[in-house]
From TrEMBL, chains A, B:
The keyword Amino-acid biosynthesis applies. The lineage of its organism: Eukaryota, Viridiplantae, Streptophyta, Embryophyta, Tracheophyta. Belongs to the class-V pyridoxal-phosphate-dependent aminotransferase family. SerC subfamily. InterPro entries: Aminotrans_V_dom, Pser_aminoTfrase, PyrdxlP-dep_Trfase, PyrdxlP-dep_Trfase_major, PyrdxlP-dep_Trfase_small. It comes from the Eukaryota. This is phosphoserine transaminase. GO terms for molecular function: O-phospho-L-serine:2-oxoglutarate aminotransferase activity; pyridoxal phosphate binding. It comes from Durio zibethinus (Durian). It catalyses: O-phospho-L-serine + 2-oxoglutarate = 3-phosphooxypyruvate + L-glutamate; 4-(phosphooxy)-L-threonine + 2-oxoglutarate = (R)-3-hydroxy-2-oxo-4-phosphooxybutanoate + L-glutamate.
């Protein structure tokens, strides 16, 4: 079966796609589409076996796709990537890419409005909270939070359970009087303190936490309550955003860089109670003033349109999965088998984090014999499990297993860890 | 010719692609690839005429692609979009999308380093200038420029030739003592003043211009020289960045949102002389401090990776076109035929901008009979020429004809304008 035509085509995908999937192998279907921009003829060749009986679509990794355990940017859902790819050149018949759309046109407005509506549905965000799609990552929010929620003489509290909370505290020193009310650094950030013993500042405008410390793998399972009745809880949720249900009403403000669980880098989502908006310090850059963005529905200046579109596709996918209750179940299962493998390794693998606050998203672990770490990483890489190296500040390994990491990826990692241990114990 | 196979495929593209191109029509090549995620068989049907003689690849618009005259986000080069699409799911055999890559991994480092190297080649950027890939658009730079280049008591000068220059001035008022040394507002922003008559502040740390005012279509063809020998020229080049050669050494700092000429929204490029870095005011958010970004090669926090990748593809494309000299020739030709059509319309169409400073990028024009504007837009839209409506603050029409707008798009617009005039004069 072959055809030639004196035309050009831009369909670059076909050649590799059917070979992408391990579960296709038995049927040995191959296609070739030669791509040429010149006016020369191109050829199509197709060979396909006769249909076999229907087989269930097993959860499997496409053959040339790796399991990516990076801490962020991180793996994205395969179906979201494929949808984005299919729509990239011409979104919904609009005749243009999402990247080319005016942010003030009706097409992009429909995209950002749906993204917000789906996020509101996922997290059950009440109407008295604004949802903002911003730029600059959580690091920009380290400044925006104190600039919007405090005055220069105000006291604010920081509960520091890792590097990110510490960075947030340091940035706040420029804009108000932040106080660290607990710091896990001397214990190498392995736990969250008991909330009862915390000495909060009586007049603190807010209490800041990092809900999941990406580097150390420490995750809040409960949330503290500000002792100042006029204070609010603020959380950096960058690395566990939309990984489980969260009662938004417990917080005055939640912010999250998108590049771990909900999209590509370049989008930062802020969920803020509306009555907290409108008090930015005079020195606040206009781009860090929540009021400006809330009044303009995140369209004061040109937003990161394509990133917001990608987040929207992810939100849609999470809703289709059954919402965050279902997502949390999957995340608990994935994290459970990985932590179990570590704990049952008789010390060959170790996770230093206190069991009650181990992160469902970022699983740091070390080898009893650190000299084996390089070999571990090399072999894992060969098995197409990548980005397992721990953060440079702590060493060891770290498996980030965000929403989009398939169960199969964790199962493969655990099988590999057991095999590696058997060979090197 | 037909084949069936009991497999699934993610190749969503094939079905429409060959029909995308007007120049394919005579050969009537059609393909159908049914996409199914279920394990049901899919079918391929191909029909192709016999090869005809090779025909030159004429510059033509793919049939279902529109000519997008939006001011930004704006049209991107078709070949760049197609390359991005082909690589979206699996970049260069890495097993992942660019959107999933760790920004500290070797793959993304190769992407950002090549993007910077290509931009340096395009603009001939000397080694004593840093190139930064940032977030937050030009609007963030409106604050970052005074925060980095001045102290609170310093005087700085703004030459205001449109809304963007005015916004930049207003933001600077938070951080230093900016002075407007010329303002075109009373004349409705139709010109650039003579530089000889400018009363610059003797000690101004910098002189700020907006090199191309997107809304009003006013473009600097020459650049003023700061009268303070220790002062520098700063330019917002968002809407004419990489549209023509620029002598970077004339400037202390150039900044540009990417979403007009070089990429999607969400990336802002800063080119800054290195000796100007390192003096940010204490109140500057860390994300607005050039020193942080320069020391970390734009990787202090997670950068907008996919946007930077897209910019890199555009830079590569501009180099392949022969660099900015060639690009400028094309832009002059496109703008020339459009302005000629306006000027030769005997007043049916009018462009208010002084001829010597008319923008090669943004061409605003009005109709002698404003009551025809809605009809003009409606008919143009029907002809697949979209986003021609002028900015809400000025009305009328605006055709943004950035680098990626093909000559064919401008020719089609001009033909339409003449036809519209013939029918409505």
């Amino acid at each position: 079966m072959a055809a030639t035509a004196s035309t050009t085509s831009h369909s670059l995908l076909l050649q590799k796609t059917p070979q992408n999937h391990a579960f296709l192998k038995p049927n040995s279907t191959t296609f070739t589409l030669t791509y040429q921009r010149s006016p020369k003829p191109f050829s199509i060749s197709c060979s396909a076996t006769t249909p076999t009986q229907d087989r269930p679509l097993v959860q499997s990794q496409p053959q040339d796709r790796v399991f990516n355990f990076a801490a962020g940017p991180a793996t994205l859902p395969e179906n979201v990537l494929l949808k984005a790819q299919s729509e990239l050149y011409n979104w919904h018949g609009s005749g243009m890419s999402v990247m080319e759309m005016s942010h003030r046109g009706k097409d992009f407005r429909s995209i950002i409005e749906k993204a917000e509506a789906d996020l509101r549905a996922l997290l059950n965000i009440p109407e008295d909270y604004a949802v903002l799609f911003l730029q600059g990552g959580a690091t920009t929010q380290f400044a925006a939070v104190p600039l919007n929620l405090s005055r220069p003489d105000d006291t604010v509290d920081y509960l520091v359970t890792g590097s990110w909370g510490d960075k947030a505290f340091k940035e706040a020193q420029k804009y108000c009087k932040p106080k660290v009310i607990w710091n896990g650094k001397s214990e190498k950030y392995v736990r969250v303190p008991s909330f009862d013993g915390l000495e909060q500042s009586p007049n603190a405008k807010y209490l800041h936490i990092c809900a999941n410390e990406t580097i150390y793998g420490v995750e809040f399972k409960e949330y503290p309550v500000p002792s100042n009745p006029n204070g609010v809880l603020v959380a950096d949720m960058s690395s566990n955003f939309c990984s489980k249900p969260v009662d938004v009403t417990r917080f005055g403000l939640i912010y999250a860089g998108a590049q771990k669980n909900v999209g590509p880098a370049g989008v930062c989502i802020v969920i803020v109670r509306k009555d907290l908006i409108g008090n930015a310090q005079e020195i606040s850059p206009v781009m860090l003033d929540y009021k400006i963005h809330a009044e303009n529905n995140s369209l004061y200046n040109t937003p990161p349109c394509f990133g917001i579109y990608m987040c929207g596709l992810v939100f849609e996918d999470l809703l289709k999965q059954g919402g965050l209750e279902e997502v949390e179940k999957k995340n608990k299962k994935k994290a459970g088998i990985l932590y179990n493998a570590i704990d049952e390794s008789k010390g060959f693998y170790r996770c230093p984090v206190e069991k009650s606050v181990r992160s469902l998203m970022n699983v740091p672990f070390t080898l009893e014999k650190p000299e084996l770490e390089a070999e571990f990483l090399k072999e894992a890489d060969r098995e197409k499990m990548v980005q397992l190296k721990g953060h440079r500040s702590v060493g060891g390994m770290r498996a980030s297993i965000y929403n989009a990491m398939p169960l199969a990826g964790v199962e493969k990692l655990v099988a590999f860890m057991k095999d590696f241990q058997a060979r090197h114990a």
